[in-house]
Design brief:
6-stranded parallel sheet; 18% strand; 11 helices; 292 residues; alpha/beta; binds adenosine monophosphate
């Protein structure tokens, strides 16, 4: 598995792959199949990332995994400096799951001196996590746009775990008329129901147990919906009640929204997104469910 460090290398590799496949008449190109899948990550890879790489490998002939801790999506008081980094282990995992290359640029490669172009998905970027983390989704949209343009991937794979990010990136790809198809993959959880996250390493044992309340809150709302309750006000009240059973965990937001606009709904319908964020100790965690 090769490790690419520059945008030129990535573009050259991707174009070479396409020319080579075309010359050999490979099905992936001739029948409109997917040649290249891209899995953007910030590294510290876990089973959630592994599932994205596996899904990419299933539907694409070749897979590039990007590993880049993107400084512009962190606020000034956030954890950019201490964000977990484990490059060698990440490469081993990516390779084991079938990645063809890892793209691991330096910060100056993605943001060359004087870089001032920002991608802002207006409106959506200020909803949910964007409301509590100003500038976060502008950083995400900017780096993802750069990665999609540089890789010329047929498909890019993202986790439902970051539901607001999915909405922002879908909008970005549609608005910029990008050729890359955005594929969304299910949330991977540990045995206790906690959604896997690179930030879970920050949690001590007591916090890991407290953090289960995120998933329990989602389940409490899902079961009310299964009983026929649809009113957002009632469902959110139940969510807050479940959350309150673990007072150590501080809610950032719990919202019932449309999955594409991220705007609040008054009544839950199939496909409504229930999303939440909370602080467990100093660690901010997110989780969500799409209601049935
Ligand atoms: P990150 O490295 O945290 O930026 O995540 C890279 C990609 O992996 C994003 O598309 C995330 O949504 C996805 N991801 C992270 N955690 C999980 C998980 N537990 N299950 C599925 N996908 C995930």
């Amino acid at each position: 598995m090769d490790i690419l460090r520059t945008v030129v290398e990535l573009r050259h590799w991707s174009r070479g792959l396409r020319e080579w496949s075309r010359a050999l008449g490979l099905q992936a190109v001739t029948e409109g199949g997917n040649l290249l899948g891209l899995v953007p990550t910030m590294g510290a890879l876990h089973a959630g990332h592994a599932s994205l790489i596996r899904l990419a490998r299933k539907s694409c002939g070749y897979v590039a995994v990007s590993i880049f801790v993107n400084p512009t999506q962190f606020g000034p008081t956030e954890d950019f400096a201490r964000y977990p980094r484990a490059f060698d282990e990440d490469c081993a995992l990516a390779h084991a799951e079938g990645a063809t290359v890892v793209f691991a640029p330096a910060v100056e490669e993605m943001y060359p001196p004087g870089a001032s172009t920002l991608v802002d998905v207006a409106g959506l970027s200020r909803r949910l996590d964007g409301a509590s983390r100003p500038g976060h989704f502008q950083g995400v949209a900017t780096v993802v746009a750069k990665l999609l343009i540089a890789s010329e991937a047929d498909c890019a794979f993202f986790g439902q775990k970051d539901a607001a990010q999915v909405a922002v990136i879908r909008r970005l790809a549609a608005d910029l008329r990008l050729a890359t198809r955005i594929v969304v993959c299910p949330i991977v959880r540990d045995h206790s129901g906690l959604a896997l996250s690179s930030r879970n390493v920050y949690l001590d044992l007591a916090e890991r147990i407290q953090a289960r309340v995120l998933r329990q809150t989602l389940i409490s709302v899902e079961s009310l919906v299964a009983q026929g309750e649809r009113r957002a006000q009632t469902l959110l009240a139940a969510a807050h009640q479940t959350f309150a059973t673990v007072p150590e965990v501080r809610i950032d937001y719990i919202e019932l929204v449309h999955p594409d606009t991220l705007l609040p709904v008054e009544s839950a319908v199939p496909g409504t997104l229930l999303a939440l964020a909370a602080y467990v100790g100093k660690t901010r965690l997110i989780d969500n469910t799409i209601l049935p």
